[in-house]
Design goal:
With about 240 residues, the protein is of the alpha/beta class. About 40% of the residues lie in helices and about 20% in strands. The protein has helices at about 15-25, 40-50, 65-75, 90-100, 110-125, 160-170, 180-190, 195-210, and strands at about 10, 30-35, 55, 80-85, 100-105, 135, 140-145, 150, 155, 220-225, 225-230. Strand 7 (about 140-145) and strand 8 (about 150) form a beta hairpin. The chain starts with 7 loop residues before the first strand and ends in a 6-residue tail after the last strand. This is Response regulator transcription factor.
């Protein structure tokens, strides 16, 4: 099964009308965009979902715009495009030196902003090192190349394709709350006609198999009204 490429953007801007306009403009080109009006909302969204890139107006935190940019780049390791009325030549140079991927004067033409987003994402894909083929948690091991799960004794634990892909999403985002929409996109693809409850069915089967195979204690926790979280730390 092919997993859909992740194309979700986070727009951090206190101009709700502009955020909605950009989301509408980006949608026909395969990008979903969420909005956050301030740093607190931004952190909530980042905890709930996995984003490919952030479009940031640093004026949502004018007293420490550099700190906000550093947080996104250093802590969340996300590509960031600044979109601000403050993106003059000196500010643009400073933003690039801090690690931003680009800086556009606001309001940029949506098609130009989209082109800069695509260029930033292409650059990240080209620079990304090959991921590890093995992920470990609680003494267990997942082989991403062969699609197999092994328990602490090295015995193979049989999983269906859907169960394996669901587990893979969780171990790639440990200790993060993932909502049903995100899980549907990653497991079935964003063009799928599967509905939310299909994730619940797969999750129930996965939990049952992990428990029956000897994995003790809670593994995937239900976070009420928010989604699910894989509780174990993972290593590559």
């Amino acid at each position: 099964m092919m997993i859909a490429l992740h194309r979700r953007l986070l727009i951090v801007d206190d101009d709700a009308a502009l955020t909605a306009q950009l989301a509408d403009q980006f949608s026909p080109y395969g990008f979903d965009a969420d909005g956050a009006a301030n740093p607190a909302e931004m952190r909530i969204m980042l905890a709930r979902r996995d984003y490919a890139l952030v479009v940031l107006d640093p004026m949502v935190q004018p007293a420490n715009a550099a700190g906000l940019l550093r947080e996104l780049i250093a802590e969340h390791r996300l590509p960031v495009i600044l979109h601000s009325a403050a993106c003059l030549e000196a500010e643009r140079i400073a933003a690039l030196e801090f690690g931003a991927d680009d800086c556009l004067s606001k309001p940029a033409h949506p098609r130009e902003l989209l082109a800069r987003i695509r260029a930033a994402l292409r650059g990240r894909v080209q620079d990304r090192p090959a991921p590890s083929a093995t992920i470990r948690f609680a003494g267990w091991r997942i082989d991403l190349e062969t699609g197999q799960l092994f328990d602490g004794t090295g015995r193979s634990v049989p999983l269906s394709e859907g169960e394996f892909q669901l587990l893979r999403v969780f171990v790639e985002h440990p200790r993060q709350v993932l909502d049903r929409g995100h899980l549907l996109d990653r497991v079935y693809g964003d063009a799928s006609e599967h509905f939310d409850r299909s994730i619940d069915v797969q999750l129930c089967r996965l939990r049952r198999k992990l428990s029956a195979s000897g994995l003790k204690g809670p593994v995937i926790r239900t976070i009420r009204n928010e989604g699910y979280m894989f509780v174990h730390a993972v290593t590559h």
